[in-house]
Specification:
Blueprint lengths: L2 H28 L82 H9 L81 H11 L1 H4 L1 H15 L5 E7 L4 E8 L5 H12 L4 E8 L4 H9 L15 E3 L6 E5 L6 E4 L6 E7 L4 E6 L14 E4 L18 E10 L11 E3 H18 L5 E11 L2
Parallel strand pairs: 2-3, 5-12
Antiparallel strand pairs: 1-2, 1-4, 6-9, 7-8, 7-10, 8-11, 10-12
Helix pairs in contact: 3-5, 5-6
Protein name: DUF4384 domain-containing protein
Organism: Ruegeria conchae
Length: 458
């Protein structure tokens, strides 16, 4: 009985001894070896202080002679209109001289009176009229010295009394004063930038203004700037863009349309860089998606020119865009109020929708073709059922679409086209008919213009 507990006690003591030995061995194995001290380089810094000689500058005032103030001498120009008046010619007062006795004892007879007058008075002097300054016209009476008509002393010539000839009074001829209009170019106050003095004037903006307002003065630099803007606008695919400079507000207005709204910011940013910091770029762009924007390329290729204003208006750069904008909401009738061409013409009006179809608004079964007098008012569409014209009600799908008016001096076709047909086939047909008309009639003329139409639900 005693042998069993003894064995358990010896085992326990042995187990504790083994555990203590293992723990000591573990501690010894994980204890790091001592690190030998490494030699550390010694760095020394030597600082020396030196006294710096200082001196104070004495404030001195410049000797400036005060300029004496004097009143400005000059004429003050009135900005109002120049007053005009007409100087009326007046009769020169005549003075009659009494005949006096000749002091000469004897005078040789004269053959005629003219010789006597030349001897007495000499050659007549021309009337001198003072020049009037054109800067200010003041009504005044022209003063002229009386002309002394010296008559020969006839009483002293008893042998042969000469024939008396009365000298005609000389009237001064009124001199027409030519009014000179000063050559002052029209200008706007906004052309001189309204700055507070702290804001610098951008030379790029100055050059841009000169290229629009005075391109002939800027020369090649103005042409380069205009060509750069024109090239920038032409790079946008499926778009027709035009810029117009507004001198009253120092604004460059961008009008026209682009195929997607993502092109808006790049276009405006590029134009702003061309204009500088003092000219604001005004966004008037519309979004005309495909295929409508692509249809304009086919329309421009039919053989008719588009009316242009850039030839005589230097404020415009870029392609000609839509002539007008029409806005319609759901339920309204499609009515276009147009004006005829500058000559008697046959006007064709077509509506190009978002599905690539063309709807012939004129002519059609409801609206037969008839010539339109020059510059006459023309209404396309019917307001009520039964009225003359095609009755069209606005409905879905809504968005941006275009209508085109073709004007020709002779008819291209009558009512032989379907009301709705693919736009591509119709434009090819129109191109052929225009080429035939030009070939048969050298005096044929025509043009086209398009309108931007926006339809919404409300």
């Amino acid at each position: 009985m005693i042998k069993g507990p003894f064995i358990w006690g010896v085992g326990l003591v042995c187990s504790l001894a083994l555990h203590v030995g293992g723990a000591l061995a573990l501690i010894w194995s994980v204890e790091p070896d001592p690190v030998t001290e490494q030699p550390v380089p010694e760095t020394r810094m030597q600082l020396s202080a030196h006294q710096v000689k200082q001196s104070e500058a004495i404030e001195a005032r410049p000797e400036v002679e005060a300029a004496p103030t004097k009143d400005a001498i000059g004429a003050q120009l009135d900005q109002s209109a120049i007053r005009q008046s007409t100087a009326a010619a007046k009769q020169i007062p005549q003075q009659t001289l009494a005949a006096t006795q000749a002091k000469s004892d004897a005078l040789a007879p004269l053959e005629n009176l003219s010789e006597a007058i030349q001897q007495v008075t000499g050659a007549p002097q021309p009337l001198q009229v003072a020049a009037v300054s054109p800067s200010r016209l003041v009504p005044a009476t022209l003063q002229a010295n009386p002309i002394l008509s010296s008559s020969p002393q006839l009483q002293a010539l008893p042998p042969q009394p000469p024939k008396q000839e009365l000298a005609q009074p000389v009237r001064p001829q009124p001199v027409a004063l030519k009014q000179t209009v000063p050559d002052i170019p029209p200008t706007n106050a906004s052309e001189v930038f309204s700055t507070t003095g702290n804001e610098p004037i951008d030379p790029v903006s100055l050059a841009a203004i000169q290229s629009f307002m005075r391109p002939e003065d800027a020369g090649k630099s103005a042409q380069n700037l205009r060509d750069g803007i024109d090239g920038l606008l032409a790079q946008i695919p499926c778009a027709r863009l035009q810029v117009q400079f507004q001198p009253d507000t120092n604004t460059l207005q961008v009008i026209g349309h682009i195929p997607e709204d993502g092109l808006r910011n790049p276009v405006l940013t590029a134009l702003q860089a061309q204009m500088g910091n003092n000219i604001r770029v005004d966004d008037k762009l519309h979004v005309l998606p495909r295929p409508q924007c692509g249809a304009l390329s086919g329309i421009a290729d039919v053989g008719l020119p588009q009316s242009t204003d850039q030839i005589t208006n230097p404020l415009l750069i870029g392609k000609d865009v839509h002539a007008r904008e029409f806005y319609y909401v759901k339920g309204q009738q499609l009515i276009l109020d147009l004006t005829g061409a500058d000559y008697d013409a046959f006007v064709y009006v077509d509506y190009f929708d978002a599905e690539g179809q063309v709807i012939h608004l004129r002519p059609n079964v409801s609206t037969p073709m008839a010539p339109t007098p020059a510059k006459a008012a023309l209404q396309i569409g019917a307001a009520e059922p039964g009225d003359a014209g095609l009755f069209v009600t606005i409905g879905p799908p809504y968005g941006q679409e275009i209508a085109v008016a073709f004007a020709a001096s002779e008819p291209l076709y009558h009512n032989d086209r379907p009301l709705v047909e693919p736009a591509e086939g119709y434009l090819n047909f129109l191109k052929t008919r225009i080429a035939e008309a030009r070939k048969s009639n050298p005096n044929f003329k025509g043009e086209w213009v398009y309108f931007f139409i926006t339809t919404t639900e409300r």
